[in-house]
């Protein structure tokens, strides 16, 4: 939606059109993504057309919105009057209150073609999902003065909610065919989703039940999108096998069903070796086609019964953000001597007047993404592995801004400033201990566990951890808390001894996503180790 656009028509109001552009990750070139409809004779249009954009939390997805007053039916934008533009990132929209962002429209001094007055396809340093609404506002005005405010654009984002359901079900079988010569069968089920081209893709396999013809399998859960790709009437094929140690499992039979049929509740399916018929009463047969062809009196190879079926909607990361969850971002920087003397150009901490060092690059890359999900943009910044003035005490948990009571810095620029000041005052030392900063953030996360806050700890280091046992213990203790740990390795050291395996078994997606307000974040702690 837009408000108070420039009025470029002499005898009526503007006929606005909005064009959305996305920026390439590699070449940084702007590409047109889509256009809204034209709304006649208004300076405050509410556009109906929505843009469906893939959303990647871990990427900085730059967007540009250009507004035009349409003067003809020509698709050539140079034929129409330029009203203004706005830049933002998709994360900026998603992270705003209610996923609704308001930005001023401007005519940039460096983005216009001097001859035509139209935007140049140049790279902007501006900043998906369903772009739910576009609205503009702005005073009636004339002209297009570079840098002048030309109204307001209001952007809203909403996650597409199709197929976020997770189905939980349990099956049992009765009177399955006996396949083992000296004992009963060892049956298991294999579920297949049908594809558009008539083929099938495996989507689930149950555990093996040993030595029984009447198995009761454990309850299992599967995303509905994996089971039927959102088509409730799409065929689901289930094959029944007798497990063999050598991998040559014996085929007992199969039956077909659909998500819609399963959702009706308890049903019984007859197993056939090669085909299934489902009776109105919900009873299908497991059929073996070879047996059916050879034996006139063949009925089936047993029955499979659906004991229970339930569906729950899965909360996603966006659910928590829209529900008001705040991301608390903390950074911890390695100040050990292995980084080299900061005054030397070979040091990883060297502050060149021409470019960011490895630590600043890593901090900026992650911080630019996460900062939009923190409303106050105040980020605690810690250092570890340095001797502090005036007594030379070694610390593995010192505030970069020097404030023990409040280590928070204002924005990513504030962290960088505090980092640069610390390099001038502390002495690089060692060892490389992670446990203190992990415990520091864990204490904060433990204080608020009602789903309103989620902590992210970014550790930037140049080498192998010295306190591996203590770090593993700290991570295990924090595993139940609403927090994640990101480790970025810089320099040329080997990072094979990363503690990632210590908590990999508890890894979960970042705090879920979706549209409803979720009362609690899932207890998860996950990390990723990388090198820049």
UniProtKB/TrEMBL annotation:
One of its GO terms (cellular component) is plasma membrane. One of its GO terms (molecular function) is metal ion binding. SMART domains: C2, VWA. It comes from the Eukaryota. Gene3D superfamilies: C2 domain. InterPro entries: C2_dom (IPR000008), C2_domain_sf (IPR035892), C2B_Copine (IPR037768), Copine (IPR045052), Copine_C (IPR010734), VWF_A (IPR002035), vWFA_dom_sf (IPR036465). PROSITE patterns: C2. One of its GO terms (biological process) is cell differentiation. Residues 1-105, 149-272 form the C2 domain. CDD domains: C2A_Copine (cd04048), C2B_Copine (cd04047). Keywords: Calcium, Cell projection, Differentiation, Metal-binding, Phosphoprotein, Repeat. It is found in: Cell projection; Perikaryon. Belongs to the copine family. Probable calcium-dependent phospholipid-binding protein that may play a role in calcium-mediated intracellular processes. Plays a role in dendrite formation by melanocytes. This is Copine-5. It comes from Heterocephalus glaber. The gene is Cpne5.
